[in-house]
Amino acid sequence: MKISILGTGYVGLSTGVCMAEIGHYVTCIDINQQKINQLRQGFSPIYEPNLENLLQKNTKAGRLTFTTSHQEGLDSAEIIIIAVGTPQGEDGSPDLSYIIQCAKDISPYLTDGAIVVIKSTVPVGTNENIQKIIMNRCNRESTIKMASNPEFLRQGTAINDTLHPDRIIIGANKKEVAEKVGEMYLPLNAPMIMTSIRSAEMIKYASNAFLATKLSYINEIANLCEKVGADVTDIAVGMGADKRIGESFLQAGIGYGGSCFPKDVKALELTANQHGIHFSMLKETMRINNEQQVILVTKAKKRFGHLRARKIALLGLSFKPNTDDMRDAPSIKIAKSLANEGAEVIAYDPVANSNARKILGNTINYASSVEDAAIDADAIFIVTDWDEIKHLDVNILKKMRWPIIFDGRNCLDENIINALDIVEYYPVGRPSIIHPHQQTH
Ligand SMILES: NC(=O)c1ccc[n+]([C@@H]2O[C@H](COP(=O)([O-])OP(=O)(O)OC[C@H]3O[C@@H](n4cnc5c(N)ncnc54)[C@H](O)[C@@H]3O)[C@@H](O)[C@H]2O)c1
């Protein structure tokens, strides 16, 4: 099948590479010339495990090409996938300007049989509006074929998720359109759910808001665990063993971030509001998350009294491991909050240092290794559970002024903590470990 994809970000590029991998002929279009140049040379502009291998392999096989030209990129495309960003606008609602621009860009080149598929996360009704824009510009009598096909990949495992999805949602108002989009995914052998366009658009928001709410729920349980002397990791195991609940998204910590959950929860709450439904549960999801993001700062202030001139090593900056994405990462709020308290912050991330610098600038300092960050630190904050951060080395801890760890991901194993002789260990929703034989400072 001949597929064109607009947008070579986390979703567009992963989709493009994977569609080529399963045998389709894919052209990726982006307005960013620099990205296209880089991609043509076989380099990925984003960090995503296994992406660059498949990019090079499929480009070499002649199944994957990149262009900034819509005329060239849309030539004889059977399916045109729109995967551009829908970031949160100033009023909290998704900014649809990139999608609208795509509709305008593709209109002159649409052939009769082509299907326009919106993969970006968009509020209910957006597909219909985009269809109208295209129809007006094409001056067509016949309806433009549209489908909604929301994406559920997770950054950090995007390639695996795209090749092995739990389900594929296809929303179309005509059976033959849904079937044609389904045909594209047949080699994946994944369950497909066909529905209306509006329902498909809604499934994406309902899913993300539910997952975010599950996280806020366990985080509030974690806060309660600290008060009553229970351990949230045991609670999560006990709850997750119940099939009705499931074990995923029950990891307590410093809350959710990233380019999707924060904006999607807000967008759903706004949609509900516009229709007279006060979805107060989502307001609470957001409130709990906002407070949770700075919980390590609160704990450190309690421990030290104040944070002025304290040197804090932030380990991990990206919103989750295995990505360089800093959009809405909890580390941003933590770093700013520590700086406001007068602390000296030195941060390290295996891949996100340079993206972090674009957001945080000189508010903090950047280290080139865990060890660099830890030297003379008063405390370590574990912010992102990258493998190299989870497996901290005892020799590194010895370089701190005094080994105190605030673990925002509950990722250090208790046996390791004891073996490493960490003086004080403060997780989230679990009992702290304070070695009695050591003098504190
Ligand atoms: N990132 C995720 O994990 C994820 C997961 C599921 C769904 N989504 C949704 O998918 C969409 C894309 O997200 P993303 O993270 O891939 O975005 P991104 O910001 O990483 O990438 C967007 C790309 O679109 C390009 N672009 C902008 N305007 C364009 C145009 N007119 N024509 C061609 N290209 C254009 C940009 O240059 C950029 O490369 C969003 O709606 C997001 O909510 C994201």
Automatic annotation (TrEMBL):
Gene Ontology molecular function: NAD binding; UDP-glucose 6-dehydrogenase activity
Binding annotation for substrate: 204, 249-253, 257, 320
Positions of NAD(+) binding: 30, 35, 86, 121, 263, 327
UniProt-listed GO biological process terms: polysaccharide biosynthetic process
Superkingdom in the source lineage: Bacteria
EC code: 1.1.1.22
Pathway the protein acts in: Nucleotide-sugar biosynthesis; UDP-alpha-D-glucuronate biosynthesis; UDP-alpha-D-glucuronate from UDP-alpha-D-glucose: step 1/1
Alphabetized PANTHER family for the sequence: UDP-GLUCOSE 6-DEHYDROGENASE TUAD, UDP-GLUCOSE 6-DEHYDROGENASE YWQF
Gene3D superfamilies in the record: Cytochrome c1, transmembrane anchor, C-terminal (1.20.5.100), NAD(P)-binding Rossmann-like Domain (3.40.50.720)
Protein name: UDP-glucose 6-dehydrogenase
Keyword Iron in record: no
Similarity comment: Belongs to the UDP-glucose/GDP-mannose dehydrogenase family.
Keyword annotations of the record: NAD, Oxidoreductase
Transmembrane segments: none
Broad class of enzyme this protein falls into: oxidoreductase
Positions annotated as active site in the UniProt record: 260
Domain UDP-glucose/GDP-mannose dehydrogenase C-terminal, residue spans: 313-414
Reactions catalysed, as given in the entry: UDP-alpha-D-glucose + 2 NAD(+) + H2O = UDP-alpha-D-glucuronate + 2 NADH + 3 H(+)
